[in-house]
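Reopening this one. Same input as before:
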Amino acid sequence: MDRTMIGDIMTVLFFAGALTMWLIVFYFFRRTRLKYLREWLFSWTFLLASYVMLLLTLWREIAVFGYLFSIGIIIAGFYFLKGMYAYRQIRFARLWYVILGLYIMTVLFHPVVLYPLLLFQQLVYLFSAFFYMVAGLIILRREYKEEKIYGVISILFAFQLAFYPIIIATEAFYPFGLLVSALLGGLLSIGMIFLHYFDTVFVAEKERKRLYYIGFHDRLTKLRNRAYFEDYVMPTYKDTGIPVSIFFVDLNNLKHINDTRGHSYGDKLLVKTARLLKSIALEDDVVIRYGGDEFLVVRPHASKEKNKAFLDALAKKSSIGKYGNLSIAAGVAERTGSHSVDELLEEAERKMYKRKDKMSSQESD
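Same output, byte for byte:
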């Protein structure tokens, strides 16, 4: 098999691969309308057109098709880079349009300047390699290692483009050069589809978990919040008769502390209270910041002995040790019959206020 036939076969295979990728990217773009897929669709469109020009150049030997091929592969690399900007959600620099315009002017003036063919091919591939190199460096700045791997592939593809004219000009390396180009180009194409799935599935799932955390956790104390209690805890124990204990905990005089010592100090006391509650809670307990200076501890059983031990530990540790001098009042309600969660919550809150009044009387004495 001679050199010309190898080149024709590989070009046809490249065209078939580019057409397949165009159809895949077109399908995903029609479904999602994502901006980066639109840019990559343009990239594969120009790449397809460039392969058509290359085939016409090989079969008809008309020079103008060679120039059009050069323009096509450069614009394809340009839109690949633009798609990477869109994937990273970075504002695309207008400078790239200027660079692309200068390149196209160079190609148009090529017949006048009469560069040697090999030198012109080298300039074409170097310019295209520049786009893929920048795109690879952009994606390397992402935080996920899977994306960084794709950035490395893009950079390797750029190096392959840079040396491609020299490799194929050497008879001994011609088949090897085509094979390397096909391999890296295939990896780049498959990786492009992977990035799309990564962006729409993995990253979307991570964002869903992040929003879930924000929606059901208190930002200051990192505890679960009132929304979690109402949406998850209450439905779990509503009308079930499952034994459960609810502790209602309140940090005393927080408003006065905020007014006299500042809200930042008050926030520190809230964080200390959260740490204290977590330190003495049992493994199955759910500690919740109910709102303001109020906390709940939901215990999925109703043992009076363990509940008393919790209140004793809270009273002891809130006044000494690493948690500082916290003044905390707490009440607990146990469900052993058919009480509703709302009734338990009201009972625990009543007992908490009773404890708070008792503590105030002791302080005044």
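So the earlier flakiness isn't reproducible anymore. For the record, The longest helix spans residues 174-216.
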